Amino acid sequence: MAAAPCLHYGTPASIKIQQKQQPTRNWMMMQGLRRRNGKASKRVGVTNCSGNSGIEIGDFIGGDLLKPDLGRWLSDVEKHKAIAIYTPHEGGYEGRYLNRLRYLGYYFLDLSARGLGDPETTLTKVYPVCPQPIARWYFPPEVDYRLAALPPSAKGLVVWIIEAKVLSKSELQFLALLPTLRPKVRVIAECGNWRKFMWKPLKEIAGLTQEGAA
């Protein structure tokens, strides 16, 4: 039995039968097209970043660029003296707020909450480090040592603690009260993540106020 001849064999390329593939729905959505009367048309207009969708323009750019809040940030740091911050997962936003404090004359002590030990002992007391059975060393209190080394022109010391979400409630309470014990100290604790940069008084997070206790 002879095989059926191919219709395209020996014919010029210009008259070959072309089978057009219909665009898929996902491809049209990626290209910004919509179907109208059976035809695909280019969607023209401005993307709506507010309203019922729940998406705001602040989700795409830094909130301090859209609605400048650096002034409120500085005033809250001076007012509450201990702040809990929540940063986006991708990071980088907190650098703008850190630099603002640096411009005012603050010096920084960067610490990680993991492995910090007892904050009261590490920051304000002479504490031992015991790699037994070799020897035992004593370290000066981290905050008092940095305060003694500050130049006369410095406005104060900012204790910036990352991963503070692992600290217990009592440890957060001590950090919230640290500026009361050391008036030139300000505390910034990274207590979690959020879709945009935000902050609250650390006393409220630690339960030292009526709002936090509730």
UniProtKB/TrEMBL annotation:
InterPro entries: NAD(P)H-quinone_OxRdtase_su_N. GO terms for molecular function: oxidoreductase activity, acting on NAD(P)H, quinone or similar compound as acceptor; quinone binding. One of its GO terms (cellular component) is membrane. It comes from the Eukaryota. Signal peptide: none annotated. Keywords: Membrane, NAD, NADP, Plastoquinone, Quinone, Translocase. PANTHER family: NAD(P)H-QUINONE OXIDOREDUCTASE SUBUNIT N, CHLOROPLASTIC. This is NAD(P)H-quinone oxidoreductase subunit N, chloroplastic.
